[in-house]
Amino acid sequence: MEELDVNNYLVQQNLFDLFKIQLRKDFSSCSLPVDFINDLHADLPHLKAAVIKELDYLLKNSTQLTNLLYRIDINETQIKNYTDKNKSMGFKEILSELIIKRILQKVILKKKFSS
Questions:
Q1: 1-22 exposure pattern, b = at least 16 Cβ within 10 A, e = fewer
Q2: Which domain holds residue 77?
Q3: Per-residue pLDDT tens digits for 56-95
Q4: Is 22 in contact with 58 (CB distance < 8 Å)?
C-alpha cells in the first residue's frame, strides 16, 4: 500500500466527505454500526481514535473483523509489513491507520478515474 500524506488529503472537504461515504458503505456492508461516522473530523488522530473504538468491538468478533478487512481490501501481508515498519504502534492503532489509509486511497483513485 503506497504511503499517503493522509492529513493533506483529509483537509480537502470534498475528499473527506467522500471518505466518510466510503467508510459508511464499507462498515454497513459488514453489518457494523455507522453512527460514529457522523461525528468524524478531518483529523488523523481523531479518525484513528474513532476507528480504534470500533475495533475494540471487532476484535471480539473475528468474523466481522475479517469481513471488514476483506471488504476494505487489507490482507495479512499488509498488516505484517506495516507492523514491521511501525514497531512502536499497537495492533489496534496499526489496523486503524491501515483502514483509514486504504479507504482514503480508494476514494482518491475513484475520484481520479471518474474525472
A1: eeeeebeebbeeeebbebbbeb
A2: 6-108
A3: 888 887 889 999 999 999 999 999 999 999 999 999 999 9
A4: no
What is the value of pTM for the model shown? 0.89
> Where are the alpha helices (H) located in 1-115, listed in sequence order?
6-10, 13-29, 44-58, 62-72, 76-85, 91-114
Q: Does residue 23 fall inside a structural domain? A: yes
C-alpha cell at 69: 478487512
CA atoms lying within 13 Å on the CB side of residue 67: 12
Residue 1 lies in a domain: no
Count of domains in the chain? Answer: 1
Separation between Cα atoms, residue 43 and residue 8, nearest integer Å: 10
User: Is residue 115 a part of any domain in this protein?
Assistant: no
